[in-house]
C-alpha cells in the first residue's frame, strides 16, 4: 500500500503558485528592473502584490485535499518552527528553525513544505510583533525553501540523503541571506555612499554595488546560519526523518480507509512498517 502526499496541487493551483512566485520574485529583484526615483512606491506596490499572492495561494490550498489529520500536523509543525525562530532572534545567523522546515518538507512533499514555510513565518511574526514591509519577502523566501526541499530526489536514502540535505541547508542559508539583502539594500545606505542603490542607474552598476554590499555585510549572518542548520541536520536528521516517516505512514494521510485488507496488502504493509 502506498501513501499519498499530504497535499497535491491541482493544475489551477500550480498556475497560481507559479504566477504568485513570479510576482514575488519581481518584488526581490525590482531594483534591477525599474529605473525610477520613486523607490518607496515601487517597493510598496511589489510588497502589496506579494501579500495578495500569499493570500491567494492559501485560499487555493485550503480547497485542496488537506484533511483533519493533515491540518493538525501542519499546526503542530508550524508551532514548532515558529517557536524555534525567536531563539536566536536572528543574531549572527542563529536561526534553528530552518532544519525542521527542510526535514518536514523532505518527508511530506514540496507543497506541504511551501505551506509550512508560509504559516511558520506568519505565526512567528504575529507572536513576536515582526510584522512590517519585510514580512512578504520572508514569507515567500521560507515558502520557496520548503518547496524546493520537497523536490530533492526521493530515492536517495541513508548517509547520502543526510549529505544531500546538509548541502541543501548550506545553499539555502546563503540564498536566504541574498534574498533578505535584496529587500533591505535599497534603503540601507541612503543615496550617498559607494554601495548605495542608484535610482535610474544601469543594471550592471547596481548589481555590482549590491554584490559588494552583500559580501561586506551578510557573511557574518549567512555563514553561522549555514553551519548551524547543516550541523543540526547531520546530527538530528536520522531520528527526525524516521519519526516523521512513521507518522506519515501510520496516519495514512488523505488515503481512503480500508476496512477489508487483502493478505498481500497486509504483508506489503508489514514490510513497509519494518523498513521504517
UniProtKB/TrEMBL annotation:
PROSITE patterns: PROKAR_LIPOPROTEIN. Signal peptide: none annotated. The keyword Transmembrane applies. The keyword Zinc does not apply. The chain crosses the membrane at residues 12-33, 39-59, 71-92, 98-122, 134-151, 163-182, 227-244. Keywords: Membrane, Transmembrane, Transmembrane helix. This is Unannotated protein. It comes from freshwater metagenome.
Amino acid at each position: 500500500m502506498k501513501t499519498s502526499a499530504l497535499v497535491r496541487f491541482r493544475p489551477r493551483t500550480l498556475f497560481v503558485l507559479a504566477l504568485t512566485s513570479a510576482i514575488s520574485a519581481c518584488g526581490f529583484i525590482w531594483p534591477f528592473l525599474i529605473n525610477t526615483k520613486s523607490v518607496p512606491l515601487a517597493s510598496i506596490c511589489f510588497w502589496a502584490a506579494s501579500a495578495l499572492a500569499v493570500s491567494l495561494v492559501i485560499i487555493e490550498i485550503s480547497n485542496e485535499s488537506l484533511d483533519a489529520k493533515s491540518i493538525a500536523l501542519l499546526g503542530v509543525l508550524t508551532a514548532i518552527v515558529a517557536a524555534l525562530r525567536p531563539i536566536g532572534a536572528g543574531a549572527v545567523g542563529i536561526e534553528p528553525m530552518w532544519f525542521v522546515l527542510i526535514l518536514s518538507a523532505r518527508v511530506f512533499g514540496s507543497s506541504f513544505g511551501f505551506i509550512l514555510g508560509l504559516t511558520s513565518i506568519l505565526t512567528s511574526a504575529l507572536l513576536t510583533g515582526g510584522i512590517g514591509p519585510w514580512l512578504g519577502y520572508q514569507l515567500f523566501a521560507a515558502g520557496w525553501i520548503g518547496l524546493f526541499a520537497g523536490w530533492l530526489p526521493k530515492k536517495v536514502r541513508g548517509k547520502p540523503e543526510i549529505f544531500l540535505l546538509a548541502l541543501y541547508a548550506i545553499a539555502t542559508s546563503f540564498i536566504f541571506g541574498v534574498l533578505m539583502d535584496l529587500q533591505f539594500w535599497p534603503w540601507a545606505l541612503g543615496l550617498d555612499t559607494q554601495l548605495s542603490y542608484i535610482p535610474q542607474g544601469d543594471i550592471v552598476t547596481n548589481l555590482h554595488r549590491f554584490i559588494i554590499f552583500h559580501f561586506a555585510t551578510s557573511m557574518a549572518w549567512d555563514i553561522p546560519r549555514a553551519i548551524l542548520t547543516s550541523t543540526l541536520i547531520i546530527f538530528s536528521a536520522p531520528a527526525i526523518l524516521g519519526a516523521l516517516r512513521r507518522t506519515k505512514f501510520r496516519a495514512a494521510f488523505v488515503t481512503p480507509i480500508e476496512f477489508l485488507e487483502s493478505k498481500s496488502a497486509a504483508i506489503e504493509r508489514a514490510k513497509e512498517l519494518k523498513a521504517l
